[in-house]
């Protein structure tokens, strides 16, 4: 028999569980929060804290049949999709740094130089790792992580739990935004990549004019040195491109949070 003072505890726990699904899904897909180095316990605590804060803006009503019913399952699916969409929108903007790093690294001849990325746990090129660190610092400097948290909390007004799921237009806009990833990455890599292509053309002309020149022993050091110098010179411009990509991701996450 349940004590009289604990009659509503189970229902309240279920409400908190539903409230923390959307922030947890957003943190799972978003950069920084979804890194393998972030403990799962910390993500759960943050999700619960945001879920409780969101309860001040909306009232969550559990289905009559509970979570195990069809209505409860639909509610959980809607919460997961809303959270994943907002986190994935920011992840798309963040991934432009990886695309730029892959492009520059291949042009410099560093396709063989790879290391483990702590964000995704996958092997990435050294240049991509460097630009991912720049993107992380840029996102933190522009308070992007706090903006994402505010969007998740505000999304409960436009997309209340148990209400309508993401519309087809919202999903279409997210897919179309993902199509801009390659363009954003190439925009970030354009200052260095285009100059390195010119260096490659110069080395090709030298190889044609002096066939005795060992291109492999001369071209790789020249390309590496030119790439490092160009990256140091173009660092402010590349940082601005990464910031613009992150800002576009945050704007897309805000559009999803407001139901647009």
Architecture overview:
- This protein is mainly α.
- The protein has ten helices and two strands, in the order ααααββαααααα.
- It has a two-stranded antiparallel ribbon with strand order 1-2.
- β1 and β2 form a beta hairpin.
- The chain is elongated.
Detail the topology: elements first, then pairings:
Blueprint lengths: L8 H11 L1 H9 L10 H15 L15 H39 L5 E3 L6 E3 H16 L2 H15 L9 H11 L2 H29 L5 H19 L1 H23 L3
Antiparallel strand pairs: 1-2
Helix pairs in contact: 1-3, 2-3, 2-4, 3-6, 4-5, 4-6, 4-7, 4-8, 4-10, 5-10, 6-10, 7-10, 8-9, 8-10
Broad structural category: mainly alpha
Count every helix, treating DSSP H or I runs of 4 or more residues as helices.
10
Mean pLDDT across residues: 79
Number of strands: 2
Largest sheet: 2 strands, antiparallel
Strand fraction equals under 5%
Shape: elongated
| Helical residues, percent | over 70%
Low-confidence residue ranges = none
Strand order in space, largest sheet: 1-2
C-alpha Rg (nearest Å) = 24 Å
Q: Calculate the terminal CA-CA distance, rounded to whole Å.
A: 48 Å
């Amino acid at each position: 028999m349940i004590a009289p003072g604990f009659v509503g505890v189970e229902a309240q726990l279920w409400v908190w569980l539903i409230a923390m699904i959307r922030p947890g899904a957003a943190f799972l897909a978003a950069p920084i929060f979804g890194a393998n180095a972030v403990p799962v316990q910390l993500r759960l605590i943050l999700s619960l804290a945001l879920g409780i804060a969101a309860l001040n803006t909306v009232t969550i009503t559990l289905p009559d049949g509970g979570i195990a019913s069809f209505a409860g399952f639909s509610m959980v699916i809607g919460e997961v999709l809303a959270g994943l969409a907002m986190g994935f929108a920011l992840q798309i903007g963040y991934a432009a740094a990886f695309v730029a790093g892959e492009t520059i690294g291949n042009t410099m001849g560093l396709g063989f130089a790879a290391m483990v990325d702590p964000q995704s746990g996958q092997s990435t090129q050294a240049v991509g790792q460097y630009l991912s660190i720049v993107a992380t610092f840029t996102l933190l400097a522009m308070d992007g992580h706090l903006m994402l948290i505010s969007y998740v909390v505000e999304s409960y007004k436009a997309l209340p739990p148990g209400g309508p799921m993401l519309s087809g237009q919202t999903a279409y806009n997210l897919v179309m935004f993902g199509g801009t990833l390659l363009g954003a990455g190439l925009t970030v890599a354009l200052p260095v990549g285009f100059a390195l292509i010119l260096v490659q053309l110069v080395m090709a002309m030298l190889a044609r004019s002096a066939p005795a020149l060992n291109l492999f022993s001369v071209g790789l050091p020249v390309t590496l040195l030119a790439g490092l110098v160009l990256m140091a010179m173009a660092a402010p411009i590349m940082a601005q491109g990464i910031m613009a990509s992150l800002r576009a991701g945050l704007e897309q996450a805000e559009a999803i949070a407001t139901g647009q």
